[in-house]
Amino acid sequence: MLRVASYNIRKSVGTDWRRRPLEILAVLNEIDADVVALQEVDRRFGTRTSSIPPRAIRDHTRYTVVAVDARPGGIGWHGNAILVRETIAADSVTCLTLPALEPRGAVIADLRLGQARFRVAAMHLGLLGLWRKRQARAVLAALDRLQPALPTILMGDLNEWNPDGRCFKLFGRAHAVLTPGRSYPSRMPLGALDRIILSRDVELVDTAVHLSSRARRASDHLPVYADVAFAGSAAAGRHVRPLVSHP
C-alpha cells in the first residue's frame, strides 16, 4: 500500500498570516505519506524562492524533493512540487505550463519504488471554470503522450466548488475522481477543492482530509490524502495504516 497526499500550503503562511514553514513540515510528518504534492510552495514575487528552505525539508522530514527546472532557490514549477520518501526515486519529470490568464502549471513525475513504477501529477488549476476545463484537457493530453502507460495518481487544488464541475467530468472519463472531503477554508471547511484522481489500475483503500489542530492553523487549506494499491506497490513494505484524524 502507498499513501499519497496533496496540500496547498499558501507559501507556508498560516491562518494567523505568519510564515511558518516548519509547521507545514510538522503537518506532513503527521500524515506520514510516501508521496506529497504541494501547491503554492514558492513565493510569488521577487526571487520566487521556496517558502520552505530545502535544508529544512532534509533536516525535519524523511522527504526528498523531486527536482524540476525551478528558479534558483525554488523547488516548484508554477508553485507545484512533489516530495517523495527517500526510498522512492524519480526516473523522469515533465513540467507543463497550462493555458491560463494567470501563471498555472503542473508537474508529472515517473517514480520508482523497487521494481514498481508509477506516475504522479501535481497541479493547481485556475479560478475560472473555462480555464480549468482547458487546463484539465492539457494535463490529460500530456499524460496520454507519456509512454509507457503507468498506474497514475493526480493530485492538487482544482479550485472547483461545483461537485458536478466540468473539469471533474473530464478527469472522470478515464479516472476515478476522489472526494476526500471538505478542505477549504481550513478553519471551517466548506469546499472540497483539494482532490486526488486515480487511473483505473490504481485501487483505492481509503481517503480522508487531515484534520489536526496544527493543520487547521498551518495553511488556509487542509491536506487530503489517500491509501492506494497497484501492481507492485507491495514493494513499499508498508502495512495498512489507520487514517489519521487528530483533534
From TrEMBL:
Pfam families on file: Exo_endo_phos (PF03372)
Biological processes annotated in GO: GPI anchor biosynthetic process
Record key words, sorted: Endonuclease, Hydrolase, Nuclease
Gene3D superfamilies referenced in this protein's UniProt entry, alphabetically: Endonuclease/exonuclease/phosphatase
InterPro entries per the UniProt record, alphabetical: Endo/exonu/phosph_ase_sf (IPR036691), Endo/exonuclease/phosphatase (IPR005135), GPI-anchor_lipid_remodeler (IPR051916)
GO cellular component: membrane
Record's keyword annotation contains ATP-binding: no
Protein name in UniProt: Endonuclease/exonuclease/phosphatase family protein
Organism of provenance: Jiella flava
Lineage of source species: Bacteria, Pseudomonadati, Pseudomonadota, Alphaproteobacteria, Hyphomicrobiales
